[in-house]
Specification:
- By secondary structure, the protein is mainly α.
- The chain has two domains: 72 residues, no CATH class; 59 residues, Arc Repressor Mutant, subunit A.
- Helix content is 57%, strand content 0%.
- It contains nine helices and no strands.
- This is Transcriptional regulator.
- InterPro entries: AraC_XylS_family_regulators, Homeodomain-like_sf, HTH_AraC, HTH_AraC-typ_CS.
- It holds the Pfam family HTH_18.
């Protein structure tokens, strides 16, 4: 009779364990390749920048912020859930929300809304798309949703903002009709 010896735990470095967890969680939400980790060769991998040290102490790390920004950029047109963002960062939803606000000074919802409004601004100045189409392209439910969010953030209606930007743009051909007096 030989006694079974307890299986020894595989000797794994912390970075190996994090990779395993990252791959598992990333595959659950179908985001292979988005989860990356910081270079661990240098024990002081945050450098000498005190701002980065402060973020690492109370907020998201640079690699977590990159993952969040990439995810939001990719899925801006659809619903962006806190749970998916937290999973990318390998933290709980509650911890993610606190760390995100500590890092950027705004909630994840406000960040996503701001990114949508910035996309809408670019589209309004660069294209002739109607506001209802821009709203859908930016992940809003309809034009009213875009208008309310835009007005709340910038204090002006999107159509008025668009007209103002087109008038102020140098070298841009005016899209407004020009009236010529008949004498």
């Amino acid at each position: 009779m030989h006694s079974q010896q307890p299986a020894k735990a595989q000797s794994a470095t912390p970075s190996t364990r994090r990779d395993d967890v990252s791959r598992f969680w990333a595959s659950e939400i179908d985001l292979e390749g988005l989860v990356s980790r910081p270079a661990m060769g240098d024990p002081d991998h945050f450098g000498s920048d005190p701002a980065l040290r402060q973020i690492a102490a109370g907020g998201l790390t640079p690699w977590q912020m990159r993952n969040v920004q990439t995810y939001v950029d990719m899925y801006l047109r659809s619903t962006v859930r806190i749970e998916a963002l937290a999973t990318l960062c390998n933290v709980s939803s509650g911890h993610f929300q606190r760390a995100f606000k500590a890092s950027l000074g705004e909630t994840p919802h406000k960040y996503v809304t701001r990114m949508r409004m910035e996309t809408a601004c670019r589209m309004m100045t660069d294209t002739n798309e109607p506001l209802c189409q821009i709203a859908l392209e930016c992940g809003m439910t309809d034009q009213a949703h875009l208008t309310n969010s835009f007005r709340r953030l910038y204090g002006i209606a999107p159509n008025a903002w668009r007209k103002q930007m087109l008038r102020e743009r140098p070298g841009q051909v005016s899209r407004e009709p020009v009236t010529i007096p008949l004498n």
